[in-house]
């Protein structure tokens, strides 16, 4: 891995991404067996949260401390990214205190600036533009269940958000059929869609018809309709997205045994029904567990540069 930071999936080539997936498989086995793995002994990780998240905090903190290090949680009141002091100053100071930074932020330009001025690895824990750790987790989970991650069909149902953008970045490296099925006014970033199409590796579609979109799908994936910072739009979005709910009728219409995925937290009986979430084909909680293992693999790889 030639890049110092982990900001976008497409910053890495296919071989490097496979290295992360293979390592995640190995460290997952070690973690489940509760083996000692002191890779980060006497090391520290600063976790900057402009956007709160239970799973992101618990998975990064648990993983880094299992590997022998110390993880520090810094919430919105501890660091006002882009408000209380310059981002480049935070980056330079933390580079002298810590061995790695993970940041979960709103504006994508803030993670880019943080990385630009950092002499230690910076991991993108989420921005409004993308969520690379989540999608690496997702494709790892698909690999576990299907034994393959190429030439499969993945249908994302809902808002063309940061999850979709990271799927598009992954589609620039691995060949698969990706469909974003969304209302017309909620399409993903046009430039990212064009970049993914122009890469010529995957089949990329934008659809507005749920039942057409999911035909022959190996995976149906969804997320909340109103993300953090959009909750004042929740009622209006609910009306727009109603026909994009993942329910049993939609799952039964694919024509094959289709897996269901959700990056969580889920608003049950809104974007997905409780029945689908609790079904045998739902692998949402395998995804949730695998965040820990993929992130551990990413941190290990970055530390070895």
Detailed description of the structure:
With 305 residues, the chain is an alpha/beta fold. It folds into two domains: 9-131 and 291-303, Rossmann fold, CATH 3.40.50; 134-287, 3-Layer(aba) Sandwich (Rossmann fold), CATH 3.40.50. 42% of the residues lie in helices and 14% in strands. The chain has twelve helices and nine strands. The chain has helices at residues 14-32, 54-66, 87-97, 108-116, 132-146, 162-170, 190-199, 210-213, 234-241, 248-252, 274-277, 284-303; strands at residues 44-49, 70-74, 100-104, 122-126, 153-157, 177-181, 203-207, 219-222, 259-262. The strands form two sheets. It has a five-stranded parallel β-sheet with strand order 7-6-5-8-9. Strands 2-1-3-4 form a four-stranded parallel β-sheet, with helices on both faces. Helix 1 (14-32) packs across helix 12 and helix 5 (132-146) crosses helix 12 (284-303). The N and C termini lie close together (7 Å). The model has no long low-confidence stretch (mean pLDDT 96).
